[in-house]
Amino acid sequence: MAGTIMIVEDEPAVARGVQVALQREGYQVDIAPTGESALERFGDLAPELVLLDVRLPGMDGFEVCRQLRRESRVPILFLTARADEVDKVVGLEIGADDYLVKPFSVRELVSRVKALLRRAYGELANTEAGRTLRRGDLVIDLDRRRVARDGERIALTTTEFDLLRHLATRPGRVYTRAQLLELVRDYEALEADERTINVHISHIRDKIEVDPAQPRYIKTVRGVGYAFSEE
Ligand code: CA
Description:
It is built from 8 helices and 12 strands.
């Protein structure tokens, strides 16, 4: 099944047109009308690709791109209206993968999206087994940053995914809260303390465990921290 594509675009007609075109190709398409809402939703949505308009109310597309790049290597396709914006996209090395100049045809859009997705994930698809952790009923796809239980997709935030990946990579190994905190420090305010980890773990359990009160995957190691189950 094709994954989710996020379009960050404040013009409803453009956003809707793109959505319809990509849905016809089998993609799920989420519309974020502002950069701020895109950043807010990015972690939970974990899109496979982001279509990013340069001109947005509030935070502009360049800034959104910079911020996304702090946490993700997701393919980003810029939508620009003017030649000077194109120069900026190409010249600034802000981490965009490609761009389309408005107005663009639906056919052009679809072919660019497919090409980008192939480039980003195509080769990895062949070696998927090596980049996927299987733990009981859980499948953790490291490349697509996706988690599923019994084939059912589970939406995790960026922080939750990284914590889970870290723990699940080495079942049985005990991590202290301080060690796990180091992992999440990159995205979180400096005042985050070790209790933050408890909160994240609790959220992860709510999402991945059949019975969060009797966790099967992430075990609490009393007085120390957490470990992923070896079973
Ligand atoms: Ca716009």
